[in-house]
Backbone:
């Protein structure tokens, strides 16, 4: 009898261990980290292409707002984690498909920490966005530890015509570009500072607190 209990207890422990390991493994690898550092040669720049959508349209939270990233192979991935090389010029392009609203903190309407302190919005170079006018701001791309902030002008169309992300460029969108120098090796959290978590307290829950949606890490390797 004692032997049988020991066997059952051992098997139970193994099963629990496997469940925990599988769960941790999932948490470690999801969302995936895209590698923009592989094969990088000194002096080369890195292109990082993103899109912001009003709702991701699939997965556990299809109604959540989200960022997506274009992998080096051109495929769009639902992730906000990137490996980039150190002390390297990063050229960022964001296809912005979401509608906007006024910023709660107008300071974030400044373009900060980019090359020249500017961004381009649909081809026009600007350094400030007044989100109390017109379309407002849909999201921000902000890396607080690096002093980088880029407000993303809202889409004039409030209807989400795209449906399921990734969105094709035939749908209404704004194109935002900017560049910045990656710092030394380390992990730099970035996030959106426009409370876009609709249905959550002050809009700051849900996607605003979830890596893969409105938060991520710039992993300088
Ligand atoms: Cu946002």
Residues:
């Amino acid at each position: 009898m004692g032997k049988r209990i020991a066997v059952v207890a051992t098997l139970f422990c193994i099963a629990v261990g496997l469940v925990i390991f599988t769960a941790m493994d999932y948490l470690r690898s999801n969302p995936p980290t895209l590698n923009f550092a592989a094969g990088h040669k000194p002096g080369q720049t890195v292109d990082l292409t993103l899109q912001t959508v009003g709702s991701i349209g699939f997965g556990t939270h299809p109604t959540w707002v989200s960022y997506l990233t274009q992998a080096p192979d051109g495929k769009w991935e639902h992730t906000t984690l990137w490996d980039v090389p150190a002390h390297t010029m990063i050229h960022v392009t964001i296809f912005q498909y979401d509608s906007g609203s006024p910023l709660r903190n107008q300071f974030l309407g400044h373009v900060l920490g980019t090359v020249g302190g500017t961004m381009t919005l649909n081809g026009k170079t600007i350094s400030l966005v007044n989100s109390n006018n017109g379309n407002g701001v849909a999201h921000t791309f902000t890396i607080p530890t690096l002093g980088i902030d880029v407000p993303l002008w809202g889409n004039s169309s409030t209807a989400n015509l795209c449906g399921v992300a990734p969105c094709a460029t035939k749908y209404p969108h704004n194109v935002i570009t900017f560049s910045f120098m990656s710092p030394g090796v380390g992990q730099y959290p970035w996030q959106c500072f426009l409370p876009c978590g609709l249905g959550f307290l002050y809009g700051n829950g849900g996607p605003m607190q979830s890596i893969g949606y409105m938060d991520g890490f710039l992993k300088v390797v």
In short: Residues 65, 139, 192, 194, 196, 214 surround copper (II) ion (CB under 6 Å). The chain has a mean pLDDT of 93.
